[in-house]
Design goal:
This protein is an alpha+beta fold. The chain contains eleven helices and five strands, in the order ααββααβαββαααααα. The chain is 49% helix and 15% strand. The radius of gyration is 18 Å and the shape is globular.
């Protein structure tokens, strides 16, 4: 894999990722850029809010179980992430470079699921706040690659502000509420959902937790989960990331991302 040399980083090093903002191939371009810069094996992006919402926005790279890990993290493990305090204490416009990976940072169950079973041996992470949403960007290496060396860590830290800003801009730009309303009203397969299923899915895409959706719609948590299950079955999907992929594809097809 090409790594580049020297300590200086030109702005053009991440230009391809910046230019891909808003395009459906953004995940592919992002992971390719990260591989060129620091031989990153896998990248996952999560959106976290102070109200407790968590969702996996991006899962790209060489970890076959990445989708399952993303769902598990968004479902419950985000609450026990040792980086959580640093992220929520560092709210602001600048990218937050989070502490270096050390297995002892994580509880036994977390460590088994996210590192031992998946083959992940190292990670670097950054976070950036935009309004009330924290975009949490994780870079992983698996056993076949070995751990990041000092030069690769330095390079990731150097490009972190541009990568964090690009990720935040992409996912902000991709799911504004007025575009969602139009898509759910007129574009299949989203328009094929029942009105209540649409309301639940729209809020999922906007980062609401199941509890927050229940409160906003005035329905029970059980009803929220039932509507989500029915909607996912109609759409032929099983995760938030797949729902987002449908929306991103429709937005791109409608020319709304240019």
């Amino acid at each position: 894999m090409p790594h580049g040399t020297g300590s200086g980083l030109a702005a053009g090093d991440v230009t391809s990722a910046v230019l891909a903002i808003g395009r459906p191939d953004f995940p592919k371009v992002l992971i390719e850029t990260l591989r060129q810069q620091a031989d990153v094996g896998h990248c996952m992006v999560f959106a976290l809010t102070r109200t407790g919402a968590a969702s996996c926005l991006l899962d790209a790279g060489n970890i076959p179980t990445g989708g399952d890990l993303g769902a598990a993290y968004a479902g419950q493990f985000h609450e026990s992430d040792p980086n959580r305090d640093a992220m929520f204490e560092g709210e602001g416009s600048a990218a937050i470079v989070l502490p270096s990976f050390a297995p002892r940072m994580y509880g036994a169950r977390y460590r088994k699921i996210f590192f031992n079973d998946s083959g992940i041996v190292d990670k670097c992470a950054i976070a950036i706040w935009v309004d009330d949403t924290c975009f949490y960007v994780n870079f992983y290496r698996i056993a076949a690659q070995g751990r990041f060396n000092d030069a690769e860590r330095a390079r990731l830290q150097a490009i972190a502000p541009a990568i964090g800003a690009s990720v935040a801009r992409h996912f902000q730009h991709s799911t504004p509420d007025h575009n969602l309303s139009a898509l759910f009203a007129a574009r299949a397969p989203l328009a094929d959902l029942t009105p209540r299923e649409q309301e639940v899915c729209r809020r999922i895409l906007l980062g609401f937790s199941s509890e927050a959706i229940s409160q906003a719609l005035g329905i029970s948590l059980h009803s929220t989960l039932t509507y989500r299950k029915r909607a996912y079955e109609r759409l032929g999907i099983s995760s938030q990331s797949e729902l987002f992929a449908i929306v991103l594809g429709l937005l791109a097809g409608a020319g709304r991302l240019n």
